[in-house]
Amino acid sequence: MSVGGIENGNRNGIGNGDVKPFKVFIGYDPREDLAYEVCRYSMIKRSSIPLEIHPIVQSELRQKGLYWRERGKLESTEFSFSRFFTPHLADYEGWAMFVDCDFLYLDDIKKLVDLADDKYAVMCVHHDYAPKETTKMDGAVQTVYPRKNWSSMVLYNCGHPKNKILTPQVVNTETGAFLHRFQWLNDDEIGTIPFVWNFLVGHNKVVEGDDSTHPKAIHYTLGGPWFDQWKDVEFGDLWVNESEEYTKFALKKAD
Description:
Number of strands: 11
Mean pLDDT: 89
Strand content: 15-25%
Structural class: alpha/beta
Strand order of the largest sheet: 2-1-3-8-5-9
Largest sheet: 6 strands, mixed
Order of helices and strands: EHEHHEEHEEEEHHEEEH
Shape: globular
Distance between the termini: 17 Å
Low-confidence stretches: 1-6, 9-16
């Protein structure tokens, strides 16, 4: 997981030492290492605020004794459940974001952070998403359930009393329904974010002449160009271009 010279926090060339970095936790899966790197690169490159970015790596959580849950057959990634450690990893303080690694950022994340509203425990895109495909990514089983993809990008108000419910014990033992549907919260504690910050490829659509529908963060939820079977996915060219740019940048920094 090398970031090719782009550093976290105030050292990444954005913002200054007077601004506390915004914490971002990106789900990491060894099968999608390049996706993680490109997601991170695209976010930092466009950010006007300092960021403190951490991968959520299941093996590291297990080594620390934080994660002991057995992997279920329907878990398509290693961060299917570990994503819910975000408030714990942020010390239950301030705001932080979790995002899947299969995102490509096209706009300044400050615009997303500015939407944070302290009256909510979490904020996310309220998708109504029921995919017809039976598999995704590299052959993983596709599942359909209420509030699907709400948990793929979440702004967490980590200091909210309700989020203290998300202890390691709860993350390891509660059901997928409890966690992915935010059942530790009341509905009015779940704020909404415009869908363009979690633009689902194959589901959300750009409306010609309507700038409010143009994606600010593309989510390759079915699979991205880093998988052979998804080389021709919609918006795949944008990811490929960003990946090539990241690779050149990483190689240049390595010299």
